[in-house]
Backbone:
C-alpha cells in the first residue's frame, strides 16, 4: 500500500507536471511553476519520497524484530 502511494506521487511529480506544464503558468517563488518543478521541486519531492520510504521500512523492521542494531 505504501509503495503504491509513493509510486503514484512519483508518477504525478514526473509525468503530471510535464504533461500539464502549459496550464501551470502561475509564479512560485518568483519563477513559473513548471520551470521551478523541473529545476528544484521534483528533486525535493524525490528526496522526500526516498527518505520517507527508508524511515517507514526501518520502522517496519523494528516492529518485526529485524532491525539488527546489535551487528
Residues:
Amino acid at each position: 500500500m505504501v509503495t503504491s502511494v509513493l509510486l503514484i506521487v512519483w508518477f504525478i511529480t514526473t509525468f503530471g507536471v510535464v504533461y500539464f506544464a502549459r496550464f501551470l503558468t502561475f509564479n512560485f517563488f518568483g519563477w513559473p511553476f513548471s520551470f521551478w518543478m523541473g529545476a528544484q521541486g521534483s528533486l525535493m519531492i524525490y528526496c522526500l519520497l526516498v527518505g520517507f520510504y527508508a524511515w517507514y521500512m526501518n520502522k517496519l523492521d523494528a516492529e518485526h524484530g529485524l532491525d539488527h542494531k546489535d551487528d
Q: What stands out?
A: The longest helix spans residues 33-63. The chain has one domain: 2-63.
